[in-house]
Design a protein that fits this description.
- There is one protein chain.
- The chain is of the alpha+beta class.
- Helix content is 22%, strand content 36%.
- It contains 1 helix and 6 strands.
- Strands 1, 2, 5 and 6 form a 4-stranded antiparallel sheet that branches.
- The radius of gyration is 14 Å and the shape is globular.
- The two termini are 19 Å apart.
C-alpha cells in the first residue's frame, strides 16, 4: 500500500465462460510457504502490468480471450471494525 493514498478505481482481468458467465481468473502462488490464490485484479496499472503474464498464460491455456476491465465508481458498502 506504499504510495496508494485512496483507491478510486480497480482493474480486473476477466474471462467469459462457455455459458456466458464472467469470472476473474486466479493463479496459485506460494506465500510464506503456503499455496495462495491470487486473483488477477489491481488498483493501478503497475500492479496490472506485474500480473499481465499470468493473464496471457491463462488465455493461451484456456484458448479464450482474457479482457482487462476498469471499474471506476467507488461505493463503500460496509465498514468492518
Amino acid at each position: 500500500m506504499k504510495g496508494q493514498v485512496r483507491i478510486e478505481q480497480m482493474f480486473a482481468f476477466i474471462v467469459v465462460d462457455d455459458d456466458g458467465t464472467e469470472g476473474i481468473p486466479a493463479v496459485q502462488t506460494m506465500n510464506l510457504g503456503y499455496p495462495t490464490a491470487l486473483p488477477l485484479v489491481g488498483a493501478d496499472m503497475a500492479r496490472i502490468d506485474s500480473i499481465r503474464h499470468f493473464a496471457q498464460k491463462i488465455a493461451r491455456d484456456m484458448k479464450k480471450p482474457v479482457m482487462l476491465v476498469k471499474f471506476t465508481k467507488r461505493e463503500e458498502v460496509e465498514i468492518i471494525r
